[in-house]
């Protein structure tokens, strides 16, 4: 079950897709997207409660795992914490990208 | 090398079937994540920053060509075309999907591999000297002992829920290539004055947030007592290890808090309660295991080889590679070959599926089909004829695996860091690449000489920064990465924890600081001195001064 929201400022809800493991973000229609640009960002406590309820439900329904809230910078609309920027952008270096770029394994 | 018997086979196949069922039940909701997590961790499956990560065990770093080709197949079929060699000689995949993991485990089982005990509070994969069975330095091949420990510790019912993880390393040479002094238990195979072979047992070493060099528990343990004695050690740890605080739960803290003499007394008292004969294995069983590690049939060769000598004289790049990457073999006319996984443009330890296949093919052609992984995140071909070295070098170069930097400043140990790891506090890969770039001139690397830079992206120290000649710890504050530096660490038989220099550096400041450190060392070193030797002679003060540019 998700940790209770304890953050400051706008919140986004993130998790990992249970089957694939990849990072997902809760969207305004209460679905999940792999893209942070699609994420629902809110400071409204009522909405945050709805987000929490949806996260808990989808966790219980075995759609996602490891659900938690992150703080979002109100101006940049990017994650406030350094760590979460990597969840958004992926690794700054990945040999997979190197392979793709150079066309060799 | 060791081949599974019917017991291994049955255990591994059963475990695959069990995990397939556990995954299915997790997906159906019959078990919760809290219930599933310890089960997946016991099979090496972590949930990392971006995705699942699977850590595959490579017992004592030994694998054959068929196995590395299977690892390549898995990288292509289920992952993104590469794997990562870890500082405990394992192989990690960064992008597997949960639904594929049972199939991956089956594919591993098909080549006598698994991911048992690569996570969790159990006895982890036993590591060893990558030169085992090939170096003339060793008292004997340490791998039969490591294999005995693997069999004893695998699914040992009493040691599946220890206070914390437990790491054992075994070596049989005075030169320590397995970092045994930074393990929960380090074992050095030795010979006593009477000529008997036994074990020097060290305990309480470790890195992480409390780096400690292991101390002698038994200077000479007779061979037959190994398993019963370790059983007694594990029981004492299981009983008294700090389960109240995860950061104080490793045996090193227990040994520190108890004192080595009292700890030893507790072990001895526990040992008295055991029936060693019930636990010890018979001589015939030891001989059976040892037979699997019988050396290959080396040809009777001279150590002088005209073909090799001619290539060495004619090709400077080949000569440089020989000087850095080749170690002396016990058999005349043979060599131990280190394959560097530290090219400029790649994360240390990463190896693509094509490179894995190439390494397997070259092992078939030149090294009795055998390979090793190293804690330095490289690969070893243990038994190569000197006359084959020119052809091997050429083939490695074609696969971008001929970097001549083993043991030099470009041979950096580096954890995945914030780019992949859920625990990290900063990135480590970009710093390793920047240092490699800054010191990319091969001539300068050779002029600097032996230099161990080790980088960790957090205090857990998977990158061994505490025991680097230059150790680097990545941290972050207010969205900015900075790097603390330690100097004077040593991972060898003269192991030492490095000294913290002071406040951290930005990325650019760090590169310039290391540049100044290296220049200072080269201007002040005495004949034959390595960086670590100069540091020990002069102390931290002058090095700190140039590092900080004060």
Give a nutshell description of this structure:
Chain A is an alpha+beta fold and 105 residues long. Chain A contains 3 helices and 4 strands. By secondary structure, chain B is α+β, with helices and mostly antiparallel strands.
Structural topology:
The complex is a heterodimer of chains A (105) and B (550).
Chain A: E1 11-17, E2 23-26, E3 32-33, H1 45-60, E4 64-71, H2 82-89, H3 95-102
Antiparallel strand pairs in A: 1-2, 1-4, 2-3
Chain B: H1 6-28, H2 33-42, E1 45-47, E2 52-56, E3 62-64, H3 65-78, E4 82-85, E5 91-93, H4 101-109, E6 127-128, H5 143-153, E7 168-171, E8 185-191, E9 197-203, E10 215-222, H6 226-240, H7 251-258, H8 260-273, H9 276-279, H10 283-292, H11 306-314, H12 316-325, E11 326-328, E12 334-339, E13 350-352, H13 353-366, E14 370-373, E15 379-385, H14 389-398, E16 413-414, H15 429-438, H16 442-448, E17 453-456, E18 470-477, E19 480-487, E20 499-500, H17 507-524, H18 531-538, H19 540-548
Write up this protein.
- The complex is a heterodimer of chains A (105) and B (550).
- In chain A, strands 3-2-1-4 form a four-stranded antiparallel beta sheet, with helices on both faces.
- Chain A is globular, with a radius of gyration of 15 Å.
- Helix content of chain A is 30%, strand content 20%.
- The longest helix of chain A is centred in the middle third of the chain and has 16 residues, at 45-60.
- Chain A has 105 residues and is α+β, with helices and mostly antiparallel strands.
- The mean pLDDT of chain A is 93.
- Chain A starts with 10 loop residues before the first strand and ends with a helix.
- In chain A, strand 1 (11-17) and strand 2 (23-26) form a beta hairpin.
- Chain A is built from three helices and four strands, in the order βββαβαα.
- With 550 residues, chain B is α+β, with helices and mostly antiparallel strands.
- Helix content of chain B is 39%, strand content 17%.
- Chain B contains 19 helices and 20 strands.
- Chain B has helices at 6-28, 33-42, 65-78, 101-109, 143-153, 226-240, 251-258, 260-273, 276-279, 283-292, 306-314, 316-325, 353-366, 389-398, 429-438, 442-448, 507-524, 531-538, 540-548; strands at residues 45-47, 52-56, 62-64, 82-85, 91-93, 127-128, 168-171, 185-191, 197-203, 215-222, 326-328, 334-339, 350-352, 370-373, 379-385, 413-414, 453-456, 470-477, 480-487, 499-500.
- Chain B has a five-stranded antiparallel beta sheet. Chain B has a five-stranded antiparallel beta sheet with strand order 3-14-15-12-11. Chain B has a five-stranded mixed beta sheet with strand order 6-7-8-9-10.
- In chain B, helix 1 packs antiparallel against helix 4 (101-109) and helix 3 (65-78) runs antiparallel to helix 13.
- The interface between A and B is medium-sized, with 29 and 39 residues.
């Amino acid at each position: 079950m998700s940790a209770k929201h304890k953050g400051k400022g706008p919140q986004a809800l993130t998790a990992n897709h249970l089957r694939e493991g990849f990072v997902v973000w809760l969207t305004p229609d209460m679905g999940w997207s792999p893209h942070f640009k699609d994420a629902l960002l809110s400071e409204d406590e009522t909405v945050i409660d709805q987000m929490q309820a949806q996260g808990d439900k989808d966790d219980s329904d075995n759609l996602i795992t490891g659900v938690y809230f992150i703080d979002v910078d109100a101006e940049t609309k990017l994650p406030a914490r350094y760590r979460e920027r990597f969840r958004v952008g992926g690794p700054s270096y990945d040999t997979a990208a190197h392979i793709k770029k150079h066309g060799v394994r | 090398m060791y081949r599974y018997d019917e017991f291994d086979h049955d255990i591994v196949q059963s475990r695959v079937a069990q995990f397939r069922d556990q995954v299915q039940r997790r997906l159906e909701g019959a078990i919760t994540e809290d219930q599933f997590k310890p089960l997946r961790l016991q099979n090496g499956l972590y949930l990392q920053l971006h995705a699942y990560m699977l850590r595959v065990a490579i017992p004592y770093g030994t694998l054959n060509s068929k196995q590395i080709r299977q690892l390549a197949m898995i990288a292509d079929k289920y992952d993104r075309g590469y794997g990562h060699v870890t500082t405990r000689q394992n192989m990690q995949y960064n992008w597997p999907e949960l639904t594929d993991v049972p199939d991956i485990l089956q594919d591993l089982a098909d080549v006598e591999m698994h991911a048992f005990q690569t996570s969790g509070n159990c006895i982890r994969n036993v590591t060893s000297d990558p030169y085992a069975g090939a170096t003339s330095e060793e008292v004997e091949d340490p791998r039969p002992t490591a294999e005995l420990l693997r069999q004893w510790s695998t699914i040992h019912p009493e040691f599946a829920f220890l206070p914390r993880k437990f790491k054992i390393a075994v070596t049989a040479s005075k030169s320590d290539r397995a970092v045994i002094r930074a393990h929960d238990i380090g074992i050095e195979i030795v010979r006593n004055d009477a000529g008997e072979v036994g074990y020097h047992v060290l305990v309480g070493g470790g890195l992480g947030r409390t780096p400690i060099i292991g101390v002698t528990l038994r200077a000479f343990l007779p061979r037959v007592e190994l398993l019963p004695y370790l059983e007694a050690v594990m029981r004492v740890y299981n009983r008294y290890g700090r389960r109240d605080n995860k950061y104080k739960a490793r045996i090193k803290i227990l040994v520190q808090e108890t004192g080595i003499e009292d700890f030893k007394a507790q072990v001895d008292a526990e040992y008295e309660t055991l029936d060693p004969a019930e636990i010890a294995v018979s001589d015939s069983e030891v001989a059976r295991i040892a037979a699997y590690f019988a050396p290959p049939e080396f040809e009777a060769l001279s150590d002088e080889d005209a073909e090799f000598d001619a290539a060495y004289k004619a090709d400077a790049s080949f000569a440089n590679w020989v000087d850095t990457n080749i170690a002396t073999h016990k058999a005349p006319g043979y060599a131990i070959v280190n394959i560097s996984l530290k090219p400029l443009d790649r994360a240390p330890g990463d190896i693509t599926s094509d490179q894995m296949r190439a390494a397997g093919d070259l092992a078939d052609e030149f090294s009795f089909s055998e390979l090793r992984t190293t804690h330095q995140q490289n690969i070893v071909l243990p038994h190569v004829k000197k006359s084959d070295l020119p052809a091997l070098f050429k083939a490695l170069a074609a696969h971008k695996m001929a970097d001549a930097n083993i043991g030099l400043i470009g041979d950096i140990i580096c954890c995945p860091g914030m780019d992949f790891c859920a625990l990290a506090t900063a990135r480590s890969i970009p710093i390793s690449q920047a240092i490699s770039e800054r010191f990319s001139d091969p001539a300068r690397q050779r002029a600097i000489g032996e230099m161990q830079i080790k980088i960790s992206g957090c205090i857990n120290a998977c990158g061994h920064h505490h025991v680097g000649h230059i150790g680097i710890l990545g941290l972050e504050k207010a969205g900015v990465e900075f790097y603390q530096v330690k100097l004077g660490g040593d991972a060898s038989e003269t192991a030492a924890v490095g000294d913290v220099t002071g406040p951290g550096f930005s990325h650019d400041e760090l590169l310039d600081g290391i540049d100044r450190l290296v220049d200072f060392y080269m201007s002040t070193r005495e004949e034959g001195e390595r960086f670590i030797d100069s540091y020990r002679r002069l102390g931290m003060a002058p090095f700190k001064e140039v590092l900080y540019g004060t």
